[in-house]
Amino acid sequence: MALKRRAGVLVVGAVVALTTIPAAASPGRASLLEPITVNGRVDGDVVAMGANVVLGPKADVRGHVVAVFGAVQRDPGARVQGRVIGIKSLAGGVLTEEGSAVPVTVRLGMDLLLASVWLVVATVLAALLPARVVTGAWTVNRLGLRVLGVGVMVFVTVIMALLAAVSLGPGVAVPVLTMLMLLTVAAKAFGLTLLGAALGGWLVARVARVRLPVAISTFIGVGALVCVRFVPVIGGPTWAVVSLWAVGAGLLGVALGPSVLPIPAPARLAE
Fold first, then answer.
1. Exposure of 182 by Cβ count < 10 A (0-12 exposed, 13-18 middle, 19+ buried)?
2. Distance (Å, rounded) from C-alpha 201 to C-alpha 207?
3. pLDDT of residue 90
4. Best CA proximity match to 65, nearest among 34, 99, 100
5. Would you say 30 and 38 are in contact if contact means Cβ atoms under 8 Å apart?
6. Distance from first CA to last CA of the chain, Å, rounded?
7. Does residue 216 share a domain with residue 124?
8. What global pTM score does this model have?
9. Which residues constitute the domain of residue 52?
10. Cα distance between residue 9 and residue 44, in whole Å
């Protein structure tokens, strides 16, 4: 029970911290579930949550333009001093520069590059923190679908925090959004490492019936997970579920730590 309370306190603390930030008195425009059309000067950031941002030919934004779960439609004559960013998925940790069409081949190349980054980061984490990764992988095995439930809870928490931030204005929404993205990506990276170690260890034990170093098992497991992303039709939804599972695993891996391991982890993973 004490370990579960530690994870709960971590989530509740994040909600309180992110939803009690005082509003900054900076000009700009923010919208929740309603499109924003800009065709003039805006002295600040433009942030839309669950809607599109339309920048007309006379738009002159003196800050950033951000669309969360939406798109930015930008006229060639629109001027933006900051960055124009569309966030397609918090679970996936994907930020894309908006404003121009991306060819299919370029998008595929970006997806392959991102998959390679996840693979490298997970393998490096497993090599640097082998004991912690083995412990976390054992925890993921023990908790099963509850890890996915935690990931869904974190996703809902992030959405609530974003809603609160957008309601406080663009001066608050942009820094909170940046913080949330960094925390989500970090949790997913560590969680994907744990999932990869668990899956890789299981695959190696069943197929080769040998015990490999945790970094190699993680490489195999994460490689199998990122390959799912490129399966037609089901690849996208499956990767979204994996991402949520990874976020939950990352949070639990940090919150519970090595204290949950009552017996040697390698022995349990090989069972």
1. exposed
2. 10
3. 52
4. 99
5. no
6. 26
7. yes
8. 0.70
9. 28-97
10. 35
Q: Where are the alpha helices (DSSP H) in the chain?
A: 2-19, 104-128, 130-143, 145-167, 170-207, 214-228, 235-256, 265-269
Comparing 161 with 259, which gets the higher pLDDT?
Answer: 161
Residues 252 and 196 grouped into a single domain: yes
Helices 170-207 and 145-167: crossing angle in degrees, nearest 10, is 170
Instruction: Provide mean pLDDT across the span 42-53.
Output: 84
Same domain assignment for residues 261 and 132:
yes
- Cβ-contact 78, 96 below 8 angstroms: no
> Are 120 and 77 found together in one domain?
no
Q: Chain-wide mean pLDDT for the chain?
A: 78
Q: What is the pLDDT of residue 158?
A: 81
Same domain, 143 and 251: yes
Domain boundary among 40, 72, 97: 97
Shared domain check, 198 and 64: no
Q: How many domains would you assign to the chain?
A: 2
Q: Which residue from 259, 248, 29 is spatially nearest to 143, judged by alpha carbons?
A: 248
Domain match, 61 and 189 both: no
Q: How far, in Å, CA of 223 to CA of 203, rounded?
A: 12
In this structure, what are the phi and psi dihedrals at residue 93, rounded to the nearest 5 degrees? 65, 40
**Is residue 27 predicted with pLDDT exceeding 80?**
no
Question: Using CA atoms, how far apart are residues 58 and 40, in angstroms rounded to an integer?
Answer: 5
Neighbouring residues of 31: CB distance < 8 A, sequence distance ≥ 6: 47, 48, 49, 51, 166
Rounded to 5°, the CA angle 14-259-154 comes to: 25
Of 79, 97, 115, the position where a domain reaches its end is 97
How many Å apart are CA 194 and CA 226, to the nearest integer? 14
Are 135 and 15 in the same domain?
Answer: yes
